[in-house]
Amino acid sequence: MFKKLVLIGGAAICTGTVLWGVTKYRKAKTTLKGENNVLYIKNSKPRPVSETVEGQFSIIGELKNIFKKSLIKSYPNFNIKMVISSPSKSGDYQCNSAMGLSKILKESGTKVSPAEVAKTLIKNIPANSIIEPLSTGDHGFINITLSQKFVVSQIASMFLEGVRPPKVDKKRVVIDFSSPNIAKEMHVGHLRSTIIGDSLARLLEYLGHDVVRLNHVGDWGTQFGMLLAHLNDKYPDYLNNPLPIGDLQAFYKESKKRFDEDAEFKKRAYAAVVELQAHNPDQTKRWQLICDTSRKEFQKIYDRLDIKLTERGESFYQDSMTKIIEDLKQKNLLVYEEGRYVMFPQKENLNPLTVVKSHGGYTYDTSDIAALCHRLEVEKADWIIYVTDLGQSSHFESLFDCMERAGYIDKNRVRIDHVGFGVVLGENKKRLKTRSGDTIRLVDLLDEGIKKSLDKLIKKNRERILSPEELEQAKTSVAYGCIKYADLSNNRKGDYVFSFDKMLADEGNTAVYILYQYTRAKSIARLANVEPNQLLNYAKNEDIKIEHPNEIKLAKEILKFHDVIQKITEDLVLHPLCEYLHKIATAFSEFYDSCYCVEKDRKTGEVIKVYMHRLLLCEVTANILAKGFDILGIKPVNRM
Ligand SMILES: NC(=[NH2+])NCCC[C@H](N)C(=O)O
């Protein structure tokens, strides 16, 4: 007799409405909660050590090593780079080096076809537990399939030890990001810098680097003259009334208007800057007040997006500038031109830096020279990263070139990157602005995100299923998650179109889709009522078999994690990580819809079978997605 079964693939046991359009599986009213699972633990035999491969690592890197060994044995005189790619149509990876090698051999007088070369390489592959026996494809391409045992051992390791970062040489990294300007509104360009910079910092922290996150705020310069003069006129009593400026943006505009139209005011503005630079106590206090007002506004954004930053603005470096300029003068590197001191880079096509202005003031360039010196000498950085819009690329090229010319940067010891990004466009493909043409205030943008996210949840009737706290958490997770993800999933070098509708879509490469798959993966072990210990014992001791095509596909996708991490660290881009997470979520969804994790009797609710290896895959999927979210600065929720 056949028992009537309820097949449970996780959300299949959710009692509520299906959230984000995933409706293919069957729903059941019963859950496994409170039932005792007795089926799982077979008599345990530890997996033989010889079958496991130690640690977690970049698969492509390891395959390169394996093929390199074969190359040395096959053609000891030809030391070329081995090229491994993924994905390929046949097999999981492919070695593409035979063709190039055949060419090189031909040039040196030995005629061997790519297919012959491939055969020789295959013959000399060292014994290993990572790949299945190899076959050649067209043109000497070698198709590589990972061995079952290896896949299983990696999945087990990711479950037992967590998702380990690849091993790297630890570096001290200074990352300069966000960096808005005092008294001006923090705009969408700064939002991009904040989101990308924070995510890169998280990535480097995950890898174990010693990361210093610096906010190089624009808190100095001639624009302060007009602000100080205006503050003095408008709020003579500013000391007794510590926060007179309500709207700093408007205050800035008023000052600017007076500065442009009133010659007498302009004079006083210049005088105020000179006084500030000479550390006049009154001007310093006014300056402090203006900075504090801005700082509070910035902090609201950072708190909402969970961004940690150390403020070290342009003003911090003012006192060290004179010494640096002296040094540059002594080294004969400054040219006096039209009343200014400039420094020319070595490369001809680059603009010179303005180091001292005609009335003796310092510039953005001067602050950056001093900041770079500080980061090298005092912070002892071996890697410095600047995250700004691509419009500043030539500024940074000149800066890095000049600093090398002055002998301040040793390129063999220090890595320096300008991480540039494109413009944020509105749905009309023009720069994102408000309807009236003003720059969008970030607080308003975040508020709108929150509202749209809540609308979406309510449209899906989630307020009926989630507790008020859960709804609140889901709302913020979705809103900020989707804003960050939309930015990070686009290649940063391009412009990107900001569209709440697109970022809140249920399907496709969106935070919403991936967050939802995460909740499904998380819920399954919880709802199947399997104790963490049982799964732990299983992963440690049992002979795990991953056999269903959708299990294999998911597992192999998971194994690409370290390759992705390596690539994004080299290129300092985040969209490949987003693409990877999207692929995992999709592979998981396919697996989840076709592979039931738990079978139970519909009538009695009795558990008939639990597929432990599938629970394990769910757990590792959740771990991988969580790790990815963590790097992207997105906070997942358990229910949404
Ligand atoms: N060290 C730097 N220059 N960092 C970037 C500063 C960005 C500048 N405050 C701006 O808003 O454009």
TrEMBL record:
<dbReference type="GO" id="GO:0017101">
    <property type="term" value="C:aminoacyl-tRNA synthetase multienzyme complex"/>
</dbReference>
<dbReference type="GO" id="GO:0006420">
    <property type="term" value="P:arginyl-tRNA aminoacylation"/>
</dbReference>
<dbReference type="InterPro" id="IPR005148">
    <property type="entry name" value="Arg-tRNA-synth_N"/>
</dbReference>
<dbReference type="Pfam" id="PF05746">
    <property type="entry name" value="DALR_1"/>
</dbReference>
<dbReference type="InterPro" id="IPR009080">
    <property type="entry name" value="tRNAsynth_Ia_anticodon-bd"/>
</dbReference>
<keyword id="KW-0963">Cytoplasm</keyword>
<dbReference type="InterPro" id="IPR036695">
    <property type="entry name" value="Arg-tRNA-synth_N_sf"/>
</dbReference>
<dbReference type="InterPro" id="IPR001278">
    <property type="entry name" value="Arg-tRNA-ligase"/>
</dbReference>
<dbReference type="InterPro" id="IPR001412">
    <property type="entry name" value="aa-tRNA-synth_I_CS"/>
</dbReference>
<dbReference type="Pfam" id="PF00750">
    <property type="entry name" value="tRNA-synt_1d"/>
</dbReference>
<dbReference type="GO" id="GO:0005829">
    <property type="term" value="C:cytosol"/>
</dbReference>
<keyword id="KW-0436">Ligase</keyword>
<dbReference type="InterPro" id="IPR014729">
    <property type="entry name" value="Rossmann-like_a/b/a_fold"/>
</dbReference>
<keyword id="KW-0547">Nucleotide-binding</keyword>
<keyword id="KW-0030">Aminoacyl-tRNA synthetase</keyword>
<dbReference type="GO" id="GO:0004814">
    <property type="term" value="F:arginine-tRNA ligase activity"/>
</dbReference>
<protein>
    <recommendedName>
        <fullName>Probable arginine--tRNA ligase, cytoplasmic</fullName>
        <ecNumber>6.1.1.19</ecNumber>
    </recommendedName>
</protein>
<dbReference type="InterPro" id="IPR008909">
    <property type="entry name" value="DALR_anticod-bd"/>
</dbReference>
<comment type="similarity">
    <text>Belongs to the class-I aminoacyl-tRNA synthetase family.</text>
</comment>
<feature type="domain" description="DALR anticodon binding">
    <location>
        <begin position="514"/>
        <end position="640"/>
    </location>
</feature>
<feature type="domain" description="Arginyl tRNA synthetase N-terminal">
    <location>
        <begin position="61"/>
        <end position="146"/>
    </location>
</feature>
<dbReference type="GO" id="GO:0005524">
    <property type="term" value="F:ATP binding"/>
</dbReference>
<dbReference type="Pfam" id="PF03485">
    <property type="entry name" value="Arg_tRNA_synt_N"/>
</dbReference>
<keyword id="KW-0648">Protein biosynthesis</keyword>
<dbReference type="InterPro" id="IPR035684">
    <property type="entry name" value="ArgRS_core"/>
</dbReference>
<keyword id="KW-0067">ATP-binding</keyword>
